[in-house]
Amino acid sequence: MLDTAIENANIEMILVNKKGDIVYGNRFFVAHHDYEPGKTSICDIFIELTHSKWQEEWAYLQKNGQNKYDTFVMQLEGRAKNYEIIESIFREEGERIACIYLNDIENRKDIEDNLFQAVTHDSLTGLPNRNGMDKIITRMLKYDKGAVMFIDLDNFKRVNDIYGHEAGDELIQSVASRIKDLLPENAVLGRQSGDEFILVLNDIDSFQEGIKLAKTLTDSLKKPFNINKNILYLSASVGTAFYPEHGNSRAAILSSADIAMYKAKVQGKARFVLYNNEMKYNLIDRHNMYIELQRALDNKEFELYLQPIYNVKMSNIVIFESFIRWNHPEKGLIFPGEFIPLAEETGLIIDIGKWVIKELAGIIRQFRENDFKKMSFSVNLSLFQLDDPDFIPFINKQFEKQGIKQKRLCFELSEELAQNISHLEIERLRELRENGFKLAIHDFGYKYALMSILDKIEPDIIKINKLHNKIQNIDVQKQIILNLMTLAEYMDIKLFCEGVESELQYQTFRELGIKYMQGYHLGRPQNVETCLRNLREEKVNDFGKTTVI
Fold first, then answer.
1. Closest by alpha carbon to 179, among 206, 198, 192?
2. Tens of pLDDT along 369-393?
3. Contact yes or no for 515/309 (Cβ under 8 A)
4. Residue 1 CB neighbours (<10 A)
5. pTM: predicted TM-score of the whole model, two decimal places
6. If you average pLDDT over every residue of the chain, what do you get?
7. Using CA atoms in the order 426, 432, 437, 440, what is the torsion angle rounded to 10 degrees?
8. Which of 21, 74, 195, 245 has its CA 20 to 30 A from that of 179?
9. CB 46 within 8 A of CB 88
C-alpha cells in the first residue's frame, strides 16, 4: 500500500482510475480541494478537463507511461490556481491506476509573467516596448495592408533639462495616454525608446486611413500639457510607412517609417511625413555630407564672412556679425543653413564651433593690428555649445593666445532657443558675461514671449526679427517696433533691427528712431580680406570709430 512518506509529503498527490474517479488523495491534496472519497472526479477539479478528454489522456498514459503539463485546478471556495501536473501510470492490485502529482506554480507563473512583461513592455507607460512591438509588427505582416508610424517628440530633452526627469517621465505618460485615446481598435501603440513611440495599424483599407490618423496625432500633441502645474508645449515629428508598398518585412517597414520621421525633423518638426523612395537617397546624401563635414574640418575648408551692423545716425560700422561658409572643393560656397542642422544633429557642431571661436579670435587680433582696436564682433551660439563643459575655458584660452584683453565679442542666441533654455545653460551664459563677453537675442519678437526671455537671459542687445519687416499694415508694424523700443530703453538694452533689405524699410526704421541696423541693403557678408581692404581704402565712413560693446 501507500507509503507513509507519500501521505505526509508536502506536495499534492492523487490516484485516478480509468473512469476519472479520484480513488485517493493525500493529506496535502485534501487540505486544498473539495474532495469526497469515491464521489469526486478529476474532471470536477481540473477546470479544462472533460470526461472525453480524460479518456484521451488515459490512452496517452497507457501508451507513453507518463505526461507533464500545466493547467488550472479548482481549490476550496471556488478559487482556480495554476498547477504543474506530473502523471504516471502503474498497476495496483491488478488494476491500472494513474498517479498524479499537483505542483502549485502560481508564484512561478507570476514571476514568469512579470519577466515576460519586463522583457516585452515599457515599465513607465505599460506599452509594448521595442521587443514587444517587433512581435506586433510581425503579426501585422499577415494582413494584406498595414501601416507603421514612428513618433518622435520634438525637443523633449529640453523638458528634462529645464523641469527635471520626473516631469519628463510624467510628460511621457501623458503623451502615451493622449495618443491611446485617439486610436482605433486596429491600432497598437508602443514605446520604442526615451522619446520615441511606434504605432502599428493592422488591416487598413487605404493610405488615407493612416494619413488621417497621423495628422490627428500631430495636431493633438501640439496642445498644451499640464505637468506639475507647469503648462508645457510639445510637438512631434511623425514618419508613416505602409505595408507592403514601403517594405515587405519588419526591418524594411520600420526603416521606412524611421526615414520618414527623420525627414519630418529636417523639414522643421511638428509635422507628419509619408515615406517615399527618394527619401532613402536623401538620407544617403546626408550621410555623405556628414563624412564631408569631418573632412572639411581637417582640410580647413571653412571660412568666416563678416556682415556690418551700422550706427545709422553716425553712418559708421559698430559691429561685424560673423557667418561661417563652407568652401566645398566640388560644390563651391555652401551656406550654413545647408550644413549646420546636420552638424547639430551629429554633434559636429562642437568641433565646428571651436573652429569658429579660434578663427574669430585671430580675426579680432588682425583688426587690432590694422589699428581698428574698437571694432566689435558677434557670433551665433548653439545650445549644444553651452552644454559642453569645455566651451568657456576654450574661448578664454583662444583669446589669451591672441593676447586679447578687451573681449569685444557678443554671443547671439535665437529667441526660439532662449525660450527652451535650461538652468545650466543660463548659468553658462552668466559665466560668459562674467568673463567679459556680451549677449544678444536675435529673431526677437518672433513668438512674443518677451518678458520671460529678457528676465532669464538678461541680454545686452536684442535684434528685432525681420518678421516685422513683412507686416503689410505699416501702422501695425510701426507700433510693434515702438513698443519694443520702449521696452528696450526701459531695461537698458540696445535694440538692433536686422534683415533691412530695402530703402523703404531703411527709411521707415530710421524715422522711428532705430539707431542700429543690419541687412543686405546696408551690406552683405564679405570675407575678412575684403572687409579690411574696404577699411584701408576708406570706402566706409568713420569705419570702426565708435563702439557699442
1. 198
2. 998 888 999 999 998 899 899 999 9
3. no
4. 8
5. 0.63
6. 88
7. -20
8. 245
9. no
Nearest by Cα to 533 from 316, 356, 370: 370
Residues 6 or more apart whose CB falls under 8 angstroms from that of 483 comprise none
Contact 253, 241 (CB under 8 A): yes
Are the CB atoms for 547 and 318 separated by under 8 Å?
yes
Does residue 244 have a cis peptide bond before it, meaning omega lies within 30 degrees of 0? Answer: yes
How buried is residue 195: exposed, middle or buried, by Cβ count under 10 Å (0-12/13-18/19+)? buried
- Rounded alpha-carbon distances, angstroms, from residue 486 to 47, 70, 492: 82, 80, 10
* Residue whose grid cell is 523638458: 159
Shortest CA distance to 257 belongs to which of 133, 157, 343, 122?
133
- Rg over alpha carbons for the chain, rounded to the nearest Å, is 36
Helix spans in 415-542 (H): 415-419, 423-434, 450-457, 474-490, 503-512, 528-536
User: Whose grid coordinates read 499694415?
Assistant: 473
Give the pLDDT score at 469.
Answer: 47
171: enclosing H helix or E strand: helix 165-182
What is the arithmetic mean of pLDDT over 322-330?
95
Residue-by-residue DSSP string for 71-139:
EEEE-GGG-EEEEEEEEEEEEETTEEEEEEEEEE-HHHHHHHHHHHHHHHB-TTT-SB-HHHHHHHHHH
For residue 520, the cross-strand partners are none
Q: Are 89 and 62 in contact (CB under 8 A)?
A: yes
435: which residues sit within 8 A by CB, 6+ positions away? 392, 395, 396, 407
3-state helix/strand/coil string of 399-431: HHHCCCCCCCEEEEEEHHHHHCCCHHHHHHHHH
Q: Is the pLDDT of residue 452 over 90?
A: no
Q: Is the dihedral of CA 39, 40, 41, 47 positive or negative?
A: positive
Q: C-alpha angle with apex 114: 112 to 118, nearest 5 degrees?
A: 115
534's grid cell: 574696404
Strands 302-311 and 316-328: antiparallel
The three three-digit cell numbers of residue 234, written as one number: 510639445
pLDDT tens digits for 215-273? Answer: 999 999 999 999 988 888 899 999 999 999 999 999 999 999 999 999 998 888 999 99
Bridge pairing between strands 376-380 and 409-414: parallel
Q: How far apart are CA 546 and CA 549, in angstroms?
A: 10
User: What pLDDT, on the 0 to 100 scale, is given for residue 540?
Assistant: 46
**What distance in Å separates the CA atoms of residue 297 and residue 179, rounded to the nearest whole number?**
43
Q: Regarding predicted confidence, which is higher, 12 or 421?
A: 12
Residue 16 host element (H or E): strand 12-16
